[in-house]
Amino acid sequence: MSEVDTKAVEDKIIEIVANQRRVDASTLSLSDRLEDIEIESIDLVEIIFAIEDEFDVDVPQDRDAMKLDTLQDVVDGIKRLIAEKNAA
Amino acid sequence: MHRVAITGLGCISALGHDADSHWSAARDGVSGIDTITAIPPEKLKITIAAEIKGFDAEQHFDPTKLAVIDPYSQYALVAARQAVNDSGLNFENGIGDETAVIVGTGIGGAYTIDNDSRRIYGDGKTRTPPMNIPKLMPSAAASHVTMEYGLHGPAFGVTSACSSANHAIGEAFWMVRSGRARAAVTGGSEACLVYGSMLGWQALRVLSVDTCRPFCIDRKGMVLGEGAGILVLERLEDAKARGAKIYAEIAGMGLSSDAGSLTDPSSEGAARAISQAVGDAGLTAEEVDYVNAHGTGTGQNDVAETKALRLAFGNASDKLMISSTKSMHGHGLGAAGALEAVITARAIADQVAPPTANFTTPDPECDLDYIPNVARDTKIDAALSNSFAFGGLNAVLAFKRVT
């Protein structure tokens, strides 16, 4: 797998989520569960769109194909997709 | 107030090019879902749809006229011709002056919009074909049907996303019931399996990657469909007087709005429309035998609809027979209620409850009788057809057997 800049992915995802929720990025942490920070299904769809657009990756359409319980799950999933894209 | 008979059915869908084949496939649990052909699959993440197969527009229309008829109007016309022919109604003895035409659609001329966008933004063209506007308008299908038969009564398009056809049929039902119109040609039509639209649905993340399994634990979402369903409605006394074949009676409708969310359904809102339809038809909950569910196969709809049916039917919900025929003809969006009205009318006429196809294991939160995979020969004296749209717009039709 090619190197992925973990810090850059984490910061960008936190920024996207903060922007979607209209909260300060400093109030979010990677261990936050999406449901605990009141991300509903339609927010998640908007967040996925923003992430896909930012990193030019495709989050699988099959919702069982990627665990998305916490922000850390989102970061890990996106890092994997970026690595796969870079390796391709 | 008049009783309202369904005397003609017309349909084109992934299940067939006429109402009979659409019904037979739904009854037999045959799915029309397959790999999409209208768009190169390599451009899509979701590559399945319930497409109309083998449709040759030139077999149905004068090729010199086709350039001004969007596919969504073509489908409506094909279905309308069948329905009018099936009804045996002759519009030339004055009834045409009092016949309403109300056709629902979610989008209207999606092909025309998609092609136009490609020309302008993709190819850099600075002109559009001159008939684009009258071709893409969501009332074009209704206009074409009026012109086909010289129908001079009230006519318009109706749009409420996935409830469009039920709103249209319900409005036509009210016109005939109230005496505002003597007869009606009504239904819904949609043709939006185009690239821009597919990308939009993909982005919403409600489409299934495999197939449509409403109410099942392993359901992955909805599958887009297309097509048109058209019904001929007339006063029951008129239909009887001319000895017409009567499939069923439309006896009631229920309408409500969730006023909640653009995308999240409300069980309470849906239940209000269901209860209203039952009451408007003069039925009790115990008298309803079959429900053609909205049943999209999404995580949210199927649980919310199950709760809505429990709310509306109470103790009577456990003996209801429910199926989602979207498992076979896909989600026809603005045509959905019409594709399902054709099936519901035939279910009553034939006394057969069609199944939910592709059924595996029920979701524990979906704990009703969804007629898994195999149709049932059974008494159906009264039935409902549910449509619940994005934006919380609910429309439910109630049907009764005419004996």
What does this structure look like?
The complex is a heterodimer of chains A (88) and B (403). Chain A has 88 residues and is mostly helical. Chain A is built from three helices and no strands. With 403 residues, chain B is of the alpha/beta class. The A-B interface holds A 40-42, 45, 48-49, 58, 61-64 and B 45-46, 202-205, 207, 209, 220, 261-264, 299-300.
Helix count, DSSP H or I runs of 4 or more residues of chain A: 3
Rounded to the nearest angstrom, the distance between the terminal CA atoms of chain A is 10 Å
User: Largest sheet of chain A at a glance?
Assistant: none
**What value does the Rg of chain B take, in angstroms?**
20 Å
Instruction: Report strand % of chain A.
Output: under 5%
Which spans of chain A have pLDDT < 50 for at least 5 consecutive residues? none
N→C terminal distance of chain B: 19 Å
Class per helix and strand makeup of chain A: mainly alpha
What summary fits the major beta sheet of chain B?
A: 10 strands, mixed
Briefly say what this structure is.
With 88 residues, chain A is mainly α. Chain A is built from three helices and no strands.
Note the main attributes of this structure:
heterodimer; A: 88 residues; mainly alpha; 3 helices; globular; B: 403 residues; alpha/beta; ten-stranded mixed sheet; two-stranded antiparallel sheet; 14 helices; 14 strands; 35% helix
What topology does this entry show?
The complex is a heterodimer of chains A (88) and B (403).
Chain A: H1 6-21, H2 41-55, H3 71-87
Helix pairs in contact in A: 1-2, 1-3
Chain B: E1 4-12, H1 19-27, E2 34-35, E3 48-49, H2 57-60, H3 63-66, H4 71-87, E4 99-104, H5 110-122, H6 132-136, H7 140-149, E5 155-158, H8 164-178, E6 183-190, H9 195-204, E7 227-235, H10 236-241, E8 248-257, H11 267-280, E9 290-292, H12 299-313, E10 321-323, H13 326-329, H14 336-350, E11 352-353, E12 376-377, E13 382-389, E14 393-400
Parallel strand pairs in B: 4-5, 4-6, 9-10, 9-13
Antiparallel strand pairs in B: 1-7, 1-8, 2-3, 6-7, 8-14, 11-12, 13-14
